[in-house]
Amino acid sequence: MIEDKNPQRTSIAQLGEFGLIDHLTKHFEINQPSTLKGIGDDAAVLDFKDKKAVVSTDLLVEGVHFDLAYMPLKHLGYKAVVANVSDICAMNAKPTQITVSIAVSNRFPLEALEDLFAGITHAAKEYNVDVIGGDTTSSQKGLIISITALGEANAADIVYRSGAKENDLLVVTGDIGAAYMGLQVLEREKQVFQVNPNNQPDLDNYTYLIERQLKPEARKDIKDLLEKLEVKPTSMIDISDGLSSEVMHLCKQSNVGCTIYEEKLPLDPQLISVCEEFNIDSTTVAINGGEDYELLFTIAIEDFDKIKANPNLTVIGHMNKETEGKHLVTRANQKIELKARGWNALEE
Amino acid sequence: MIEDKNPQRTSIAQLGEFGLIDHLTKHFEINQPSTLKGIGDDAAVLDFKDKKAVVSTDLLVEGVHFDLAYMPLKHLGYKAVVANVSDICAMNAKPTQITVSIAVSNRFPLEALEDLFAGITHAAKEYNVDVIGGDTTSSQKGLIISITALGEANAADIVYRSGAKENDLLVVTGDIGAAYMGLQVLEREKQVFQVNPNNQPDLDNYTYLIERQLKPEARKDIKDLLEKLEVKPTSMIDISDGLSSEVMHLCKQSNVGCTIYEEKLPLDPQLISVCEEFNIDSTTVAINGGEDYELLFTIAIEDFDKIKANPNLTVIGHMNKETEGKHLVTRANQKIELKARGWNALEE
Question: Which residue from A200, B145, B152, B311 puts its CA 20 to 30 A from B333's CA?
Answer without folding.
Answer: B311
